[in-house]
Structures are given as structure tokens and as C-alpha cells.
Design goal:
10 strands
């Protein structure tokens, strides 16, 4: 299809070593034999803007990861010229009432406020399911990542960028609060309150180089192809880890960042380590490391 062609034109190496392709209208999900999923937002004709159908597909995909033990790492990217332009405001959505609804022609419980809140909650559920996924998610950001697209970038575990990446809190520019799409939760934790305040209170763009300088992104790559190689290398290093160790480490990171203090964080670490030492692959790997086994780590 034209959408698959658009993806391959962006980065030809994505299509290699694929064993399956999940069926969605607005997404491409390529499943690789080593446990890697490559998730592509696939509406390049609309800058991968998030329509309500795409929102539901993303919610379903992330929800399915919770009990998916074959998928171990996810690389998330956008087809075409950018990552995600934000919400698709040109499409009819459930975020605003349809004609006549605001005039009281529907049940009072479905007034303008309650209907808009329902649409807002549907969007936020996408981020909730994404963060609940036990697999590490690597976001590859090239071109625009605005509004809700910026929220997806922030909700990932690792962010990689090119110099052309530009991210912003677009909703502030559009006359609403900059606190939206989980941005107020993630942004201060990633780059500090000062930079977060600057971006949320102005809607300024954050470009790739500064994203690395502010520690929002891990690595700056000169081209999309180089970023693709870097993401694959990162994923392969993660996949070399023990299966449950990978999942528990992500869980530990997510819980520790909001832990009430040092004791709570180390108590969680202690329990996870006991689980892995007693029931995991620790003894074999220690034997390998010590040279007592011929098998490779």
C-alpha cells in the first residue's frame, strides 16, 4: 500500500527481518523474531496527527502489551516527514459536542462539559496504557512532535532525536492550558521545572540539540538512518537481558521516581533482586561471566 511505501522510503532498513504485521488502520506494527516491535504512526498525509480512531488503536495496542510476553522492546516512530503533529483538529471527534447538543437537545448528563471531559479521558487513557506497558519504549523523533505527539514522546522511556526534531506544547498556543496529555507530569521530571515552565508557559519549540542538552533526549543523531541504527543497537542491548529482569527494571524505574523516599525505593529493589536471584537466570549468567561456562552471555 502507499502507506507501507511511505514508511520504507523514510528508512529502508525498517522492513528487514519482519515476521509479522499487526493490522491497524492508522498504525503499522512490525513484529520481529527477537521480541522487538516497531510501532509506526502511519498517517503521513496528516503529519501522523492523532484522530480519535488512531487514539483508540494506540490505546488498544498499548493495552495489549501488558500480557504480551513475546514482545520485549518497542521502537516508536512516525512515518513521513515527522513524528506526530498532535491531535487532528480537522476531523470530527468526540472532544467537542456536535451541532445541537450544546443547545440542550440531548440528555442533560451529556452536556458540553461532560461530553468534552469524556473525550479528554479517552485521550488520556492512551497515555495511561502506554505507561502501564512493561516493555521499554524507545521514541525516535524526527520533524515535528507537537501537543499530544509531544506527550507520546515524553511518555516513552528513552528518546532519540535528529537535529530536525522540534517539539512543543502546542495546546498553549491554541488558547488552552499547557497542562494536557500528561505533559505536566513528565516534562518537569525529565528536564526540570525551569525548562518545563518555559516550554509550557510559552509553547516554544524545543529542537533536537537542546533536547539533549536539557536531558530530555538521550542522543542526537545527524540523520534519520543513523538514528534508526542507534535505536536498533539500543534495543538489541536490552533484548540481551533476562526477560523478567527487563520488565522489572522498567517497573522499578517508574515506581522509584515517585517513591516517597530512599527506604521505599531500596525496599522495592531488594524484593525485585530476590525474585531474580532465586527464580531467574542469574546463576547461569554468573557462571558465564566467571568463565565457568562455554555459553556466551
Amino acid at each position: 500500500s502507499s502507506r507501507v511505501v511511505a514508511l520504507v522510503e523514510v528508512c529502508p532498513c525498517v522492513a528487514a527481518r519482519v515476521i509479522g504485521m499487526a493490522r491497524f488502520q492508522s498504525l503499522l506494527v512490525e513484529k520481529h523474531p527477537n521480541g522487538l516491535d516497531v510501532l509506526t504512526l502511519n498517517r503521513p498525509e496528516r503529519m501522523n496527527a492523532i484522530s480519535m480512531p488512531m487514539c483508540q488503536e494506540l490505546t488498544d495496542y498499548f493495552a495489549g502489551l501488558l500480557h504480551d510476553y513475546k514482545t520485549r522492546v518497542v521502537i516508536m516512530r512516525g512515518a513521513g516527514k515527522g513524528f506526530c503533529g498532535g491531535l487532528d483538529l480537522l476531523q470530527q471527534s468526540d472532544l467537542t459536542p456536535k451541532d445541537g447538543e450544546a443547545a440542550g437537545e440531548v440528555d442533560p448528563s451529556e452536556n458540553e462539559v461532560s461530553k468534552t471531559l469524556k473525550g479528554q479521558r479517552q485521550l488520556v487513557e492512551m497515555f495511561r496504557k502506554m505507561r502501564a506497558a512493561p516493555q521499554p519504549i524507545i521514541a525516535m523523533v524526527h520533524g515535528a512532535a507537537c501537543g499530544a505527539g509531544f506527550g507520546l514522546v515524553l511518555a516513552a522511556d528513552i528518546r532519540l532525536v535528529t537535529p530536525q526534531a522540534k517539539m512543543n506544547v502546542a495546546m498553549f498556543k491554541m488558547g488552552t492550558s499547557g497542562g494536557d496529555m500528561s505533559i505536566s507530569y513528565f516534562l518537569p521530571r525529565l528536564c526540570g521545572n525551569s525548562v518545563a515552565s518555559e516550554l509550557m508557559l510559552t509553547g516554544r519549540f524545543l529542537h533536537g540539540e537542546r533536547a539533549v542538552q536539557t536531558r530530555l533526549a538521550s542522543e542526537l543523531y545527524p540523520t534519520l538512518e543513523e538514528m534508526e541504527k542507534g535505536a536498533r543497537q539500543l534495543a538489541e542491548e536490552m533484548l540481551a537481558g533476562e526477560h523478567n529482569g527487563l520488565r522489572l527494571t522498567k517497573e522499578c524505574l517508574n515506581l522509584a521516581i515517585d517513591a516517597p523516599g530512599f527506604e521505599a525505593a531500596v525496599a522495592l529493589e531488594d524484593r525485585q533482586q530476590v525474585l531474580m536471584v532465586v527464580g531467574g537466570d542469574w546463576k547461569r549468567r554468573i557462571g558465564n561471566f566467571s568463565g565457568k561456562s562455554k555459553s556466551k552471555l
